[in-house]
Amino acid sequence: MALASHIARALQPMVDLAYPPRCPLCGEASGTQDGLCLDCWSALEQPGEPACASCQRPLGDNVTGFEDAVCAPCMTTPPRHAGIAAATLYNDTSRRLVLSFKHGGRIALAAMMGRLMAARLGELGEEHLLIPVPLHRWRIWGRGYNQSALLATELVKITRAQVMLDGLERHKPTPSLGGLGRKARAKALKGAIRVKRSRANAIQRREIILVDDVLTSGATANACVGALLKGGAKSVRISCFARVVDGEAFAAPMEASLVETIPGPENETPGIR
Fold it and tell me: Disulfide-capable partner of 150 in 71, 73, 110, 219 (CB 3.0 to 4.6 Å)?
């Protein structure tokens, strides 16, 4: 692996000369083959402080001096997860990246997205186990890949964590969650996600990092967290590339936006997650 990386770095100048790096979003010149141009980088919005001590949801700028401040949703319903690490907040730029990656077939974006996610996660060791949010087999057959699994694969290259791509399974398809309320989402996902039987022993007492591309209402992530904790995991932390700050308010518009035409090998109907 080290030799391959050394060869790749040595050949990179020739690759850049033959194929000048271009931003995958706007087409302008960029510094690297898998990066964005300066304007698109600047348009990405990253979570900052102050933030909820429980879920890292950004709080208002007027909240100061409260390191242990908790947001209203976490006070009302304390989460079962051990925290959320989002690389970006969901805006037009992150949305376009996700669309290109998830529905446009631009899987090479996983490397850049994974680096941003790793930066938010901090130090990970061998005690941490990366597990992606699963897709139903029908979705994988149609799309050709699980975008969350690709991100987990990139994270394991950067960190010292271990990875288990098939730790969870979605054994029954679920309908579109866009436009549904919290209770309806939970009902749609009830019993749909479980720990894979052959992996049950491997997740016992492990510190799990649940990997996903976008966290909207949190319904899918909550179903995964519940399955992992029920299966014996010590804790579950969520890592995502983009996070919708107000999942209830923005979940429906976001799901609807995925219907747009994306340049790529397919243009599928979104929402079955």
Answer: 110
